[in-house]
Amino acid sequence: MTKSADTGIKRVLLSWSSGKDSAWTLYQLQQDPTVEVVGLLTTFNSQFKRSAIHGVRQQLLRLQAQAAQLLLVEIPLPWPCSNEQYETIMGQALDDARAQLQMDALAFGDLYLEDIRNYREQQMAGTGLELVFPLWQIPTDQLARQMIEGGLQAAITCLDPRVMPEHLAGHQFGYQLLDELPESVDPCGENGEFHTFAWDGPMFAQPIPVVGGEVVNRDGFVYADLLLEGS
């Protein structure tokens, strides 16, 4: 029998992007006495050793997991990676993680995009795993302020210059940023307008000391590198 069967505690593996939504999802799960977070699941580009989409160095994700005092389940993806390859790799990784961690559920930091949620549910159908969406349909202007007021600290690591100013790359996620965002941009960047790296907050035992690095334009996006302070 799994631990959850013995105790009634739901063992949850959290999908981890390194950003503010993942971090705030972790915090919400930590507040639930019926849940035990057993690890963070992340994908990264195996060629560049950076997280998929957010472009964050693998070293920094490992430091996040240490700060959260959780196992980081790392899934290397080839570059380029087709959707078919991605689904095959993820399926095997989840099988391995389930055997290792005996989890009951997968949690995601999705906010309101129905197509993404439907895709996740289709992919997980038949696995026996429950899917959990702790932040689902919280109004994003309200959610952004909850994060800031709750002490979450994050920096923009990637943005789409077609929808928001390039100079915001590398900026901290806070009230000033919210004031500067164009009205068409979601306050949490849920439509892919920007992505972040969470470096401090109530979900972590200690901050991850980072400093800004090079800002580059690549593949139609602006990336702001983050470096470990003193490295």
Uncertain spans: none
Intertermini distance? 45 Å
Q: Helix- and strand-based class?
A: alpha/beta
Number of helices: 7
**General shape:** globular
CATH superfamily: HUPs
Radius of gyration: 17 Å
The helix-strand sequence is: HEHEEHEHEHEHEHEEE
Query: How many distinct beta strands?
Result: 10
Strand content: 25-35%
What is the name of the CATH architecture?
Answer: 3-Layer(aba) Sandwich
Main pleated-sheet profile: 6 strands, mixed
Q: In the CATH scheme, what's the topology name?
A: Rossmann fold
How much helicity do the residues have?
Answer: 25-40%
Let me know the average pLDDT: 93
Structural account:
There is one protein chain. The protein is α/β, with parallel strands linked by helices and 231 residues long. The protein has a single domain (3-228), classed as Rossmann fold (3-Layer(aba) Sandwich), CATH 3.40.50.620. 32% of the residues lie in helices and 27% in strands. It is built from seven helices and ten strands. The strands form two sheets. Strands 1, 2, 3, 4, 5 and 6 form a six-stranded mixed beta sheet that branches. The longest helix has 19 residues, at 83-101. The protein is globular.
Topology:
Layout: H1 3-7, E1 10-15, H2 20-30, E2 35-45, E3 50-51, H3 58-68, E4 72-77, H4 83-101, E5 105-107, H5 114-124, E6 130-132, H6 140-149, E7 153-159, H7 175-180, E8 194-200, E9 210-218, E10 221-228
Parallel strand pairs: 1-2, 1-5, 2-4, 5-6
Antiparallel strand pairs: 2-3, 7-8, 7-10, 9-10
Quick structural overview:
Helices cover 32% and strands 27% of the residues.
